Amino acid sequence: xxxxxxxxxxxxxxxxxxxxxxxxxxxxxxxxxxxxxxxxxxxxxxxxxxxxxxxxxxxxxxxxxxxxxxxxxxxxxxxxxx
Length: 82
Fold this sequence. Notes:
This protein has about 80 residues and is α+β, with helices and mostly antiparallel strands. It has helices at about 5-20, 50-60, and strands at about 30-35, 40, 65-70, 75-80.
């Protein structure tokens, strides 16, 4: 193998791996705080990703989430009776 090919091949493999993993960097939504009356969900990019977590959290108290406010990457829900 010639020297330029020996250098280019590993660099190409790293570039391909980096491109493939680049799409996996979106943060996953998570509950940052909450109680039986409300829940705060941090999310990355799409507010729709916060609703399933809020629904799951409020269900522990036999309640459903109602979006009351949102900011950049954070959503605030009230847990209201069903």
